[in-house]
Specification:
The protein folds into two domains: 2-172, Roll (Ubiquitin-like (UB roll)); 244-468, 2-Layer Sandwich (Enolase-like, domain 1), CATH 3.30.390. The protein is of the alpha+beta class. The protein has helices at 21-26, 89-96, 106-122, 130-136, 147-156, 199-208, 221-226, 262-268, 274-281, 286-289, 294-299, 307-313, 357-361, 411-417, 424-437, 448-468; strands at 2-5, 8-11, 47-51, 58-61, 74-76, 186-187, 192-194, 213-215, 234-237, 247-250, 253-257, 317-322, 327-331, 336-338, 341-342, 348-356, 364-369, 380-389, 392-401, 408-409.
Length: 487
Amino acid sequence: MDFILNGKQQQVGICDANLTLLDYLRGDAAMKGTKEGCASGDCGACTVLLAAPGQPPRAINACITPLGSAANKQVWTVEALTGDGALHPVQQALVDCNGSQCGFCTPGFVMALTALYANSQRCGLQQLDRDSVTDAISGNLCRCTGYRPIVEAGTKMLQIAPAAPTLVQKPASLQPLSTNSMQPQLSDGEHSFFQPATEAELQQLLALYPQAALVAGATDLGLELTQRHRQFAQLISVGAIPSMARFEWQDDQLLIGAALPYTDLESRTHELSIPLKRLLHRLGSRQIRNQGTIGGNIANGSPIADMPPVLLAWDADIEIVDSSGKRTWHPLSSVYLGYRLTLVQAGQYIARIRISRAALERPHRFYKVSKRFEDDISAVLGAFSLELAGGRLGAVRLAFGGVAATPVRATATEALLTGSTLSDALIASACDTLKNELKPISDVRASSAYRSEMAANTLRRALLELGSGLELEVHHYPAGNEAALYV
């Protein structure tokens, strides 16, 4: 496997395909500036920059990124910033603003801000606001410095003249990188990592290795490596297949590639759906959204995944493809069979998600309830698609995450609301019906009673907003489209 690390080509020979990028950097490459904090993509101490050919650099969590995902790409660590002894403007700003105390988290903050710095320069920005900075560091945890001086450094870094050339933003002029995508990028004889370049190659590999684990962003699968210490015999990445990362309209249907990273989706939905844009801002951190995908969010079958309730509310379909190339569309509502159990079988993959224009144009609201505003898992997520004409409710879709073994539709409550005249009495009745319909469990994240009450409250809020035509929004969201900086 070949990739470029801090401007120099790396050739990795015999290697366990389950090795993470972080372990390679700290071990084989002896790049100790990149730290391991949580090993789960939560703290940002392991943040590095990753860029595919012709793409801008993005901050990612090296701790949950399989090394094979860096094949044929560029990686930068904090060591790349001071190779000539001069401080990068991000580092100088942190020094000037007293943005570091113990320093353990600092390299991760530096790299997250460096991604913002590099892409701001690429976009010709002269000034950064607080929203853009806090978005960039939303996945970085500091326990001792406090965020005020770090945010201040982020807003001032573009005003500092670089003392030396900053990060390379285009592929380095080195030897051609490996291109034989049907051969493993990494292998130690027992564990192999493949990165096919087309769906046809993916299908061939799945015919050979139907039990292989598929890798998209690895933001969930990475935890299997670092927390459960699983060893996969074969890992097959879908991240280099262009057809699986498209965002396109066909007639009145929106088709979203299952491997499209959330950051790309976020930038494209800026005007399509403000509620979705706001929800995506709360889906993980910038590092997670730079890698995570809708297809992965569906395929892992988690009952607390953020996107499935949204897609259920929009009556979305998913395309499942098998190793022979046979393609079938299925309503997402029929895909979940049980806890982390879906229709997707061994030797199959999710290729695309389909949403009708009519569904997207119906009034909709998405609300996430979690302990932290950003970078947290939902206790409850409510997704609502509602029509109101002449005071009477038309089509109603109510979907929830975190209240059952799978993402679910509240069909009994939908039936009560459909065709009814919207009133305070109807809202109260619908909330009572919903509480009886949903049977959430208690766990470390929330009690059953809390989840039930929050689900009802999100429905009440959606109906009140629909009836009044006003938003009862109490949270602050960035005014711009920060994701566009990374696309």
